[in-house]
Amino acid sequence: MLSLLRRITQEVTAAQSLPAALDIIVRRVRRAMRAEVCSIYLVDTNTKEYVLMATRGLNADVAGLVSLKADEGLVSLVGRRAEPVNLEDAHIHPSFHYLKGSGEERYRSFLGVPIIHHRQVLGVLVVQHEDKRRFDEGEEAFLITLSAQLAGVIAHAEATGAIASLTPNNIPNGSDFRYKGVPGSSGVAIGRGVVVFPPADLDVIPDRYTTEFDEEIQDFYQALEAVRQDIRRASNRISQHLSADEKALFDVYLKILDDNAIAGEVVRKIKEGNWAQGALRHVIKAHINQFNRMDDPYLRERASDLRDLGRRILSHLQEKAPNVLERFSEPSIIIGEELTASMLGEIPIDKIKGLVSVMGSGNSHVAILARAMGIPTVMGALDLPYAQLDKVDLIVDGYLGKIFTHPSEALIDSYQQIVDEERLLEEEYETLKDLPCETLDGQRLSLYVNTGLSADIVRSLDRGAEGIGLYRTEVPFMVRDRFPTEAEQVTIYRQQLEGFAPAPVTVRTLDIGGDKALPYFPINEENPFLGWRGIRVTLDHLEIFMAQIRAMIKASAGLYNLKIMLPMISNVAEVEEAMALIRRGYAEVKEEGYDVKMPKVGVMIEIPAAVYQVKELSEMVDFLSVGSNDLTQYLLAVDRNNPRVADLYNSFHPSVLRALLSIVDQVRDEDVGLSVCGEMAGDPMGAILLMAMGYEVLSMSSTSLPKVKAVIRNISLQQAQAMLNEVMTLSHAEAVTQTMTRLMREANIERLIRPSKTSNVD
């Protein structure tokens, strides 16, 4: 059975269309189970009826034309129950309903299993016999297994627009279809979608033998140069909005086109006898396949970059490059299967209201650029029927990673209120810039920012940041095609330290692995989040760690505001080793004559093991900073970048709250700084609870800082502690959120919470 399932899956995956895939399934299943009938019914996303889409054994002429209502027939019973229905005699069952014209009146036995994807019933797979007999457990198990695999095929067909609606009627506005993704850049966008497609399709290019090697090579180099010019123009078009680090994203594209990389391989293929287009296809697809086989998310993003470049070169070879600018007469929400940095560069910034990418994550180049330019973005919207959303009204919720298509007026009004409130609150926040973050009863809370790009400095200072609680050094590493030299790192870190001096700047040592990787330093693991990452990598590569430490300390010369933070600490031995190396690096820099002081050193508490050794760790370092993102992820065993389990990731889970409170209790009598630098710190609801627990420093994105300050300045510490006491007795994350929402409403501060309102409008 396993080999049969594999063969069917391979055939279905290779099918050219959804009807072809469904026909393969009903034909192969009927034969494998020796059934007289095999049929597939799919749910019409508009009418919610079960449409007979493919059959072998029933009247094939009615396929696509007949359907069962959501509450009639055995098929709908399977869908409502979301479990198999196995009957010896279907005709005597009270839910039996004859489907007119199908010819099923002579079939008695019935086995139907639901086709479920992400908890949603997409359809029902049915087998039938004339004889009265119950299908055995093995047959039922086989059909359940097959339907589980079929669900992925149908979901992909929906995403590509093949079956978004099985009826010819257009979907009216007011349907409020909701799709989930991963937040890429915060904010709300309301507008009309424009679907962007790659300019050429490498998959359809054939091999063609040629002896005109010189002519083909010349054509190829001309196309290559044209693409280089396109990328330079795209970079120049938005350069005023980007820092040097962000512009380096475009340099990655240019380096890929270098003769020693892709171009050289294509030329060799041409000299072997293939024409330029065929040679290009061979080389690009070979590289894409290599990257796609890698587990690391960042390297898979590089596969999309290669695919995009290959299509662009092909379009110039074929002289069919479309004029992208002609499609944007008004500001729009840009949608694509794989949005890339170069696609973004082709579109005028004032024409972009929001971005949605079916593929990708918050780690992709386009997400980095979107955050830099303040464009609401959702990534990883796997089930979005993107091909059908051109000129369709949309709402993009970049806070929660949601997309609404065909929104109702009521939903638009609700989100428009959020947009309007954002605008008004931004004006209100301006008045708070130079005021302290202090409660009504005088409790002082320090608000720092998380940074990674040079452009973050000005934005952060404009919003009243008191220092940097987390500078992510991996960002400047990621936008290069090699490790930055020690001198280059000195320049990078000096910019951050000078920008905030004399305020403290906490620089985290290189934190790669998991969902963060370097294109020139691949880490290929089956389970990267539990693998070689953070401090484990750098302690294994002292040449990387020591160069970083020396660069950080040199950059602090004369400023004395450097703090060094160690990520992913799981035991005291790692801290002991790292501290010895930091002292060594400090001594080496002093010997070189730099005017430096020994920086304060801290560790991140983001692994459950560290939570239980907080007291021991606090005796070894100057400060502790809780990384609430990873701590939540590891406590709940939920990949926070995976949209399929996004509903399970919740920083207000009682276990997370108890862990955070436990950390404070363990170090209450220790002379050690304590802060939080994860996303929870930037959520006003989370900020209230963290302050009530005893955390005195919160570090967040610059966009979150004003609203947190506004909330804290409108509440007392006593009120915050009363809220904490009430929610700590609760056992459900949703109950915590609902209770806090109610308490904040009673305290007249709910209006300052934009992200929480977005969760209530749908």
Automatic annotation (TrEMBL):
Major subcellular site: cytoplasm
Location(s) in or outside the cell: Cytoplasm
Recorded catalytic activity of this chain's protein: L-histidyl-[protein] + phosphoenolpyruvate = N(pros)-phospho-L-histidyl-[protein] + pyruvate
Coiled-coil segments on the chain, per record: 217-244
Known EC number: 2.7.3.9
Enzyme class: transferase
Keywords, ordered alphabetically: Coiled coil, Cytoplasm, Kinase, Magnesium, Metal-binding, Phosphotransferase system, Sugar transport, Transferase, Transport
A Pfam family of this chain: PEP-utilizers_C
Sequence ranges assigned to domain GAF in this UniProt record: 17-164
Cofactor(s) needed for function: Mg(2+)
GO MF annotation, one: phosphoenolpyruvate-protein phosphotransferase activity
SUPFAM superfamilies, A to Z: Enzyme I of the PEP:sugar phosphotransferase system HPr-binding (sub)domain, GAF domain-like, Phosphoenolpyruvate/pyruvate domain, Phosphohistidine domain
Record-stated family: Belongs to the PEP-utilizing enzyme family.
NCBIfam families: PRK11061.1, PTS_I_fam
Record protein name field: phosphoenolpyruvate--protein phosphotransferase
